[in-house]
Amino acid sequence: MTKTAVFRAVDITKTYQMGEVQVRALRGVSLELFEGEFVVLLGASGSGKSTLLNILGGLDVPTSGTVHYLDNELTASDQGMLTRYRRDHVGFVFQFYNLIPSLTARENVELITEIADSPMDSLDALDLVDLRERADHFPAQLSGGEQQRVAIARAIAKNPDVLLCDEPTGALDVKTGIVVLEAIALINRKLGTTTAVITHNAEIAKMADRVISLSNGQIAGVEKNTTKIQANVLSW
Amino acid sequence: MKKLDRKLLRDLYQLRGQATAIFTVIATGVATFVMSMCAYQSLTTSKDKFYRDYRFADVFSSTQRTPNAMLPRLREITGVATVETRLVYDVLLDVPEMTEPATARLISVPDAGQTVLNHLYIKRGRMLQPDRSGEVVVSDVFAKAHHFLPGDEVRAILNGKSQSFKIVGIALSPEYVIQVQPGAMLPDDKRFGIFWVSERDLEAAFDMTGAFNSVTVRLAYGNNVDAVIEDLDRLLTPFGSIGAYDRSEHLSHQYLSDELSQLRGMAIIAPAIFLGVAAFLLNIAVSRIIVQQREQIAALKAFGYTNLEVGVHYLNLVLLITVTATIAGTLFGFWMGNGMMGMYEEFYKFPSLELQINFFAVAVGFLLTFSAALLGTYVSVRGAVRLPPAEAMRPEPPPSFRLSIIERMLPKHALAPEMRMVVRNLSRRPIKAFLSVIGIAMAVAIMILGNFSLDAMNYMMDFQFRMAQRQDLTVTFVEPATESVMYEVQTLAGVLQSETMRAVATRIRFQNRSRRVGIMGIEPEAELFRLLDAKERVVRVPDFGIMLNTKLAKLLGVRVGDEVIVEVLEDKRPILTLEVSAIVEEYTGVNAYMNKQRLHAALLESKVASGAFLKVDPNSMDQVFTELEQRPGVGSVTIKDAMMQSFENTVAENILVMRSIIVIFAAIIAIGVVYNTARISLSERSRDLATMRVVGFSTREVSTVLLGEIFIFTVLAIPIGFMIGYGLAGIMIAGLDTENYRVPLVINRETYMMAAGIVVLATIFSAGLVQRQVQHLDLIGVLKTRD
Ligand SMILES: Nc1ncnc2c1ncn2[C@@H]1O[C@H](COP(=O)(O)OP(=O)(O)O)[C@@H](O)[C@H]1O
Ligand SMILES: [Mg+2]
C-alpha cells in the first residue's frame, strides 16, 4: 500500500548566526512522514531534532530547502499563513509543558479548542489522558506527569492532523514518562493522528513505526519497526 | 468568557498590588485634569454669561466733576455703542458693631431704577424705587459679612454728614464679581462693600447736580478699544480724567483672568506629571509580565494564536487598568470640581456658578491617558508580538553581569556580598534604575510644589507688611489735605508715630510702552513706610528721579539710569522727564515712588498730603478709629492687621486644603513607584532570593538585597526631587506673576525636610509591604517552578 506523505522535506538546512559563529543545526535533511504514522526522532543533544520538528510545525523556517505539508509549501508561506497552518493542523507537546498557570486544566484545553474549527469536547480530551476528574485543577496543583498529560490533551483536543512532541518525557521520571507515552501512543492509534516524538532515548524508539536518527544535523539512518512494543514494557 | 480573557483577569488579580498603585496614579492625574478643565469651563461660562446678560462695560474712566452736557459728545465717539455716566464715591461707613472703619463704594443708579450698563442681579429684596430716596442696594458679600437683610439700616458718612440708608435689596454686579478695594491685595468682605443708591441722593449729598464723575462704555462690535480710549481721554482730560482703561486693567476682571490662567496651568502640569509616572509604572509592570510569560506567549503562538491576538491580549491588560482608572478619575474629577465650585462661590460672585461637565476635556483626558499607557507599554507589547514562537521555547539565557563601575572604584572587599548584588543589579538595568529614581523624585517635587506656596505667601506677607510697611493704619484723604489737617491726624491721642504721603495719578511712558500708575511721594527718612530691595535691604529714597517697583520696571522695560516721561493726570498736569533712580522689590501692585519734596516741587504745589501712615498704641486703637471717622477729610482707613487676618483666613485656609490633597497625591506617587519597583525586583529575583535563603542567608540579609536597591533609589531621588521641585515651583510662580501680586520663589527648609520625610515614610511603608512577602517566600515552590 502507498500511504500519503503528510510531510515532504527536501534538503533542508538551518544555520543560526551567533555573533561571529555560525551554528549549522541542520545540514541537508530530506524526509517524508506518512499519514497515521508514529515516528520517533532520535539523536544526541544538539543534533538538530528540535530544529527539525520546529520547522515541520511551522514554528521556524529553514535557511534553505523546501518543506511541504500535503500540497502546501510551508517554505513559501508567510508568518500569517504559518500561524493559520499551526492553528488548523498542528498539535504541540513541549518538554516543559508550557501550560498557562492561571488557567485550570480544562481551561488550558479550551484555550486551544476555542480557536479550532472542529474540536472535541475539552472533557473528552482530558478523558483520553485519564484526567477528567482533575479538570478544575490549576497546573500548580498537578504533578509533572499530570501537567504533561494536560498538555497532550490540549494538543489533541482540536483534532490536529499532526501531533509533534519535543521530548515530552524529558522532565519526567521513568514511571510517569511511560504513562505519558502511553497517552500519546493511544491517541495515535485511536485517532490516527500522524505523530512525531523527539527523544534522545533509544528505548522509546521501540514503540514507533519508524525511527529516524539524527546526528550532527544530518539523517544518520531510518529504521522500520516491524513489531511495535507497548510503552509499558519499555525499559529505560 | 473567552479563556484568554479569563487568563487576563487572573493575571490582573495576581498583579493587584501593582495594578492598584498604577490605577491610583492614573485616576489622580485624570481627576486633576478633569477638575481643572471643568472648573475652567464653568468659570468661563458663568463669567461670559454674566458679562453678556448684565452688560458689563468695556471701557471705564473716572473724572472730577464733569457736566452732563458732555454726554452727547461721548456718545458721538466712533465705536461707542452705549455710554453711561454716573457718580462714584468711596465713603466711610458707620457700622455700630464695628469699631474699625469700613469703606463703601457708592455708585449712583439712574432715577429710572436700573443702570444702563453693569446691570444688577438682585439676589434678595428689590431694586431701588424710582421716586424714593434713602434706599440702598448692597453687594452680596458685604451683606453676608454683616448679616444684613433687606429692611436693615446702614449709616454712611457722605461729605462729612452721617446719613442713614434703608437696605432694600442685595445684589451682584458683573463689575464686582470679586470685590477688592483698590490698593488692597485681597477681598475683605467686612470692610469693603458696594452700595448702589439713587442718583438723586448722591447728587444732593455731594453737590453734583447735573454732573458726573464716572463713565462706563460698551463698545460697538468689532471696534478698536485703543481709539475709543484715546477719544475719551481727549474729551475728559479737561475734567480731570485720570485716563480711561479697558477690562484688562479692571480689578475684578483681572482677578478672574488670573484665576483662569492658573487653572489652565494646573490642567497641564499636574496631569503631565501623573501620566508620566503612570506610563513608567505601566512600562515596568508590563515588561515584567511579558518576560515572565515568555513561554506562555510561545505556547499560544505555537497553537496558532496570531500576533494580533497576543498583542491585543496584553494591551487589554493595560487598557483594563487604564479605562477603569480613567473612569474613576473622571468621576473623582467631577467631585473635586464640585468642591472647587464651592470654594469659588466664596470668592467669585455670579448669579449662578455650577459645575459644567466639559465633555471635550473628558475626551482629551481619555486620549491623553491612553497615549501615555500605550507609550509606556508599546515596546514591551511589541516585544511580545515579535517573539518568534520557536525562539521562545528555549528558556531565557541568564542575564549577563559585569563588574560595575562603582565596584571597580571600591577596594575589592569593601562591599558585603548582599550589597554587591544590589550594586550589580542596579548597574545591569541603568535606565530602569534612572526612571525609578526620577519617579520617586517626582513625588518629592510634588510635595515641595504643594507646600511651598504657603512659604512663599508667608514670606510675601512678611516682606510687604512687616519688613517694608510697618504702619498700623493707612489713612487716605478725600482731597489733598493741608498741613493743619495732617497735623490734626498726626497728633490724635494714641498715635505713636506718623508719616504723610502724596499720591498722584500719572501715566509713565518709556519708549513705546506706557502704564497708568500712581506715584507716591514718601519721606526719605521714613520709619514706617519703607522700600526694600530683593535682599530685604532698605532703599533710601534719593532726592532725585523716580523709583519703580520690579514689576513696573519689567512692564516698561526700564533699568536704573533710564529716563522716563511722566504725565501727571491731575490738577496742573505737568509732564516730567525723570531718571529712574532705583528699582525696589514689591510683591503687590505696580507702583512708583518719589521723594515727597521733589514730588511737591514737580507738581508745583505746596506741602499737601493724600494720606498718612500711622503707628498706633494698640490700647487706643478704638479711640483713633472713632476720631478718624468723624473727620470729614478722611476717605478711607486701611488696617494692616485686619487685612493680614482676612488674608490668612481666606487664602491660607484654601491653601491648606490644597496642601493636604497634594500630600496625598505625592504619597500616592511615592508609594506607587517604590512599591512597584520593589515588587518587580522581588518577582525578578524570587528564585535567587529563595536560593539564598536555602543556602543559609537570613531573611534580613535577603531583604537587604531586595530593599537595598529601593533605599538607594530614595536617597538618590531626594536631592533630584529638590531640584525638580524648585524648578517646577519656578514655573508655577511664573504663572502667578500678575499685576496684582507676585509670589516670590521662597521654599523653607522645613518644606524640603517634610517632602523628604514623607517620601522616606512612603518608601518604608512600601518596603514593609514587600518585606512581608520576602518572609513568605515559598522556598520549595520557587525552586521547583521554571520561571
Ligand atoms: N535559536 C538558536 N540560536 C542559536 N543556536 C541555536 C538555536 N537553536 C538551536 N541552536 C543550535 O542548533 C543546534 C541544534 O539544536 P537543537 O535542534 O535544539 O538540538 P536538539 O533538539 O537535538 O538538542 C545546537 O547546537 C543548538 O545550540
Ligand atoms: Mg531539543
From TrEMBL, chain A:
Pfam families given in the database record: ABC_tran
GO cellular component, one term: membrane protein complex
InterPro entries cross-referenced by the UniProt entry: AAA+_ATPase (IPR003593), ABC_transporter-like_ATP-bd (IPR003439), ABC_transporter-like_CS (IPR017871), ABC_transpr_LolD-like (IPR015854), MacB-like_ATP-bd (IPR017911), P-loop_NTPase (IPR027417)
Domain of life: Bacteria
Annotated ranges, domain ABC transporter: 7-235
Gene Ontology MF: a single term: transmembrane transporter activity
Keywords: ATP-binding, Nucleotide-binding, Transport
SMART domains per UniProt: AAA
UniProt family annotation: Belongs to the ABC transporter superfamily. Macrolide exporter (TC 3.A.1.122) family.
Protein name: Putative ABC transporter ATP-binding protein
Species assigned in the record: Novipirellula herctigrandis
UniProtKB/TrEMBL annotation, chain B:
One of the protein's GO biological processes: lipoprotein localization to outer membrane
Membrane-protein topology: Multi-pass membrane protein
Domain ABC3 transporter permease C-terminal: 268-389, 661-769
Keyword Cell membrane: yes
InterPro entries cross-referenced by the UniProt entry: ABC3_permease_C (IPR003838), Lipoprotein-release_system (IPR051447), MacB_PCD (IPR025857)
Domain MacB-like periplasmic core: 26-234, 434-630
Entry keyword set: Cell membrane, Membrane, Transmembrane, Transmembrane helix
GO CC annotations on file: plasma membrane protein complex
Locations listed in the record: Cell membrane
Keyword Oxidoreductase appears in the UniProt entry: no
Pfam families to which the protein is assigned, alphabetical: FtsX (PF02687), MacB_PCD (PF12704)
Domain of life: Bacteria
Ranges that cross the membrane: 21-43, 268-291, 312-337, 357-379, 433-454, 656-678, 710-732, 752-770
Family assignment from sequence similarity: Belongs to the ABC-4 integral membrane protein family. LolC/E subfamily.
Protein name: FtsX-like permease family protein
Organism the protein comes from: Novipirellula herctigrandis
Taxon lineage: Bacteria, Pseudomonadati, Planctomycetota, Planctomycetia, Pirellulales
